[in-house]
Amino acid sequence: MNPAEVKARDEMARLCKSMFDRGFSVGTAGNVSVRLEDGILMTPTNVTLGDLVPERIAKIDLEGNHVAGDRPTKEVFLHQAFYETRPEAGAVVHLHSTWATALSCLVDVDPDDCVPPLTPYVVMRVGTVKLVPYVKPGDPKSGQLIRDLKGQYAAVLLGNHGPVVSGKNLFSAVCAAEELEETAKLLVALRGQKTKLLNETEVADLKTTFGTI
């Protein structure tokens, strides 16, 4: 195992435990992946994110064959689709975090922009979030739903399921997933209140200054 893969495995275990310890994942919910030069590391199926053993993290090759570690998450199709359509993505984080999942269950959110620009950091770290229809967990259709977006979104909400966020590397993907969760919490807490969103000029200024996701 080369040093880059060893480092990636250790970082996955550390950051996944951090998310678990802080309540972003419960039980065996959620899954995380990191792209390598020769494949993809994925959290194993039916394993808590708080108790990953680096050497047992699953690995699939570029053709999707399981080549090392324990059996990968059943959401493998979801992760593969992000990497196929977003060449810049180096990691994908899928959580069942409370507030983002709550947002994915509401009937009156805009499916094309389900996380409006409430704060500058959701614009800077997450970007526009698409709500995609519900499919059964582990269904290969989830991958096709992501492919159909043609890489336009770094983050999505799976209907009645939860968020999936990609990033240039694992640290940025984790930070973006956490930012999405906190913004969803604010959005749900503010429902029914008169709320000021960032306007188009303010959003454009953020994108010009900090770039797009």
Residue runs with pLDDT of under 50 for 5 or more positions: none
In CATH terms, what is the architecture? 3-Layer(aba) Sandwich
Which fold name is given in CATH as the topology? L-fuculose-1-phosphate Aldolase
Helix content: 25-40%
**CATH class bucket:** Alpha Beta
What characteristic shape results from the CA principal axes? globular
| Number of distinct beta strands | 8
Mean pLDDT equals: 96
**How is the largest sheet built, in terms of strand order?**
4-3-2-1-5-8-7-6
Task: Give me the secondary-structure category.
Answer: alpha+beta
Name the CATH superfamily classification: Class II aldolase/adducin N-terminal domain
Termini separation (Å)?
32 Å
What percent of residues are in strands? 15-25%
Features:
single chain, 213 residues, alpha+beta, L-fuculose-1-phosphate Aldolase, eight-stranded mixed sheet, 8 strands, 38% helix, 16% strand, globular
Write structural notes for this entry.
With 213 residues, this protein is α+β, with helices and mostly antiparallel strands. It has a single domain (3-210), classed as L-fuculose-1-phosphate Aldolase (3-Layer(aba) Sandwich), CATH 3.40.225. The chain is built from seven helices and eight strands. It has an eight-stranded mixed sheet, with helices on both faces. A hairpin with a 2-residue loop joins strand 1 (31-36) and strand 2 (39-42). Helix 1 runs parallel beside helix 6 (170-189), helix 2 runs parallel beside helix 5 and helix 3 (98-105) packs across helix 6 (170-189). The longest helix has 20 residues, at 170-189. The radius of gyration is 17 Å and the shape is globular. The mean pLDDT is 96.
